[in-house]
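Chapter review: from sequence to fold.
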Amino acid sequence: MKKSVFFLITFCFFYTIKAQEYDFFNDKGELKSIYKDADSILDEKYLLYTKEYTDIDSALSAKVPVFRLNLSSNNLGEIPEGVFELLDLQMLNLSDNKIREIPSNISQLRYLRYLSLNTNLVSKISPQIGALKFLIMLDLENNFLEKLPPEIGELTSLQNLLIGGNNLKNLPNTLGNLSSLMNISAWGNQLESLPENFGNLISLQNLDLSHNALKSLPSSFSNLNFLIICKLSYNKFVIFPNELCTMENLAYVDISHNLIRQIPDDINKMSRLQMLDLSYNSLSDLPKSFGKIPFLQQLYLKHNNFTYVPRALQKLGSLRILDISENQLQQLPSFIDNFLFLQQLYLSKNYISSLTDNFGNLAALNILDLSNNQLDRLPDSFSQLQNLEILNLAHNMFNKIPEQIFSLSKLKDLNISQNNISKIPPEISRLTNLERLDLSSNMLTSLPISAIQKLPLLKTLILTGNPFNSDYISLLKEQLPNVVIVF
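The token string follows.
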């Protein structure tokens, strides 16, 4: 089954879709053969078009086989015994109840494909769960599990295992038997290590191990040749795992909020990497090979120990998003104009006092955050940023709005709060696409009202923390009736 179908199924666990009309049953109430698969049960592609029952009594009294049962949010303390009489059941939703265990008679539902017990009190799973040979999705997120039974490894059809938000300290070695598994969500547990045979999960594409206690990955991890998304944030890695570097198909890696101080030289072997989040680590430099990652488009280096922009970045010509905020940068390098395709740049909470003269060459920028720095002027080339839509200059040292800004005709959101501005020039009227203007915490006592009235799209004007008198506030409200003014 394709991954998109899985997400559709998951969605339909919680939302009812309008069923297409199918005549599934013959006069005897038996499933017609044209709707059966190779195992002589309902073909999965028709499952969403069968009736979904929402109470056990109506399901038990049905004259035809019941394939879908949704008993979510019913304050159930256990799985009702009647459920185990529905032997044709393929989709069972028991989420958001108070169920404490999955009992042994779960094995009676031998055709079950989708089982959700999300958000319950489950702390025990019977080994008999291994009898569910057709199970494709098992959702046990947000429960109280401390371990999984080894019989989980007998679910040979399983493609999606959702076990996040539990108290798991380890995963059974038998997990490596699940060669069909495509998606594992195991965030928010207490995992300190993974089974040595974890790399046997050769079909795995999406892995979320965030919010655990991992310090390393097993050597077999690099065998996960189809892994595309890997989330390892909020763990205890000190060194970027070498096992990731040899995985050529990885496109998305989030290893933020760890303790990483070093990146391996062979990181450039991640030849299809598009997004890398290294935020909230302890990095102060990057190896030269980092610049050889050919298709990297999003790079997040927020809250590290960089005192300069690493030279390795200068060859990352494909970058679309760069976040190097909350570091210790004092200046930007001249190679900043190498990022010709950069659309979003975040430099807030550094010590930058000036921008390079060629900064305006970043012509593709549409979001720029320079807040919480030491800027008091902008270079002349800044006026060339004609695609800029969001500009944040808050908490700097400007005593006036730089005139270069008035040339930014596409600007929609301008934040120049917490500066030393005492006067707004009439040229503000040139920003005809402006929707939000934040002038809070400056030294303003008046505004060019007639110029602001020429901003046809302005919706929000934030003026808190300025010494306006009450009469002037009333005048502004009267003259700008279509603008939400925040004082």
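Two observations follow directly from the output. Residues 1-11, 13-19 have pLDDT under 50 and may be disordered. The two ends are 56 Å apart (CA to CA).
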